[in-house]
Amino acid sequence: MYYAFELSSQRRVVEANYNTFVNPLLHPNRIMQQHDFLYILNGDWEIALEYDGAGEIIPIQKDDLVILPARFHHYGTRLCSPNSRNMYLHVDALQGDYVVGQDGKRGGEENFVFLPTVIHCGSNIEINRVFSEIVAVYWKDTLHKSNRLSCLFDLLLCEISEQELAGTINSQCVAFANEVARFLRSNPEMFFSVPDIARKFYVSEKTLNKRFKAVYNKTFYAWQMEQKLDMVYQALHNNADITLKETAVNFGFYDEFHLSRAFKKKFGIAPRYVR
């Protein structure tokens, strides 16, 4: 089953915490008025979800995230393994949330994400990080707490959606490419070679390019050049006074001629026309 979650609206996180079950336990038998998001950190479980006269048995294990939608009956069918550990969120349903069906394919609804019952997160550190941040903020006495939680939950939905859309792409490749991308964007003045990045992230040059091809369908060098030129375009558009020579230095190009040639090849115009 797929479920449509509405974005860009205030959403209340009712509960958020960690659970540890030293001794095996069944998942509660209940119908909740809130969505139940469950991230398995260790161990395994099995939960039944009933909806519209049908249902499914959901086996879940480490690094699986299961979504149990509001107002649907769910219950444990098997005891969790000893010393199981999870994070969970109970989040208010919005009026716009709705059941999609089995394929989750809808068009023209930019303010929604479409998620299945189970997402295999694997080594996707972003989903884990955002989920744990929601739990941390929930237990803080902090300014604008409810707004922070709502924004973080929308971010979590987007991260889960991105993982789902990745489909058959190895989650390790996605996590690796995201980590490299963050490093590149935080050092815009540098233009990194393939050997530079391979050494930095302890992989072979072949593995580096293989992972970027899997995620972005291009080599690391080609991806980096595209990212650099997009950043250059933005910088030139936002600062009419900066020279092309300064821009080349700021974004790691050899000189303004190198930048100009690459820019014109990508955008079809010379950089001086972007003002």
Structure characterization notes:
- This protein has 275 residues and is of the alpha+beta class.
- It has two domains: 2-165, Jelly Rolls, CATH 2.60.120; 172-273, Homeodomain-like (Arc Repressor Mutant, subunit A), CATH 1.10.10.
- Helices cover 39% and strands 27% of the residues.
- It is built from eight helices and twelve strands.
- The chain has helices at residues 125-138, 145-165, 171-185, 194-200, 205-216, 220-238, 244-250, 256-267; strands spanning 2-6, 13-21, 30-31, 34-42, 44-51, 54-61, 64-68, 73-78, 84-92, 98-101, 112-116, 118-120.
- The strands form three sheets. A five-stranded antiparallel β-sheet has the order 2-9-4-7-12, covered by helices on one side. Strands 3-8-5-6 form a four-stranded antiparallel β-sheet, with no helix packed on it. A three-stranded antiparallel β-sheet has the order 10-1-11.
- β5 (44-51) and β6 form a beta hairpin.
- α1 packs antiparallel against α2 and α4 (194-200) packs across α5 (205-216).
- The longest helix is centred in the middle third of the chain and has 21 residues, at 145-165.
- It is elongated, with a radius of gyration of 23 Å.
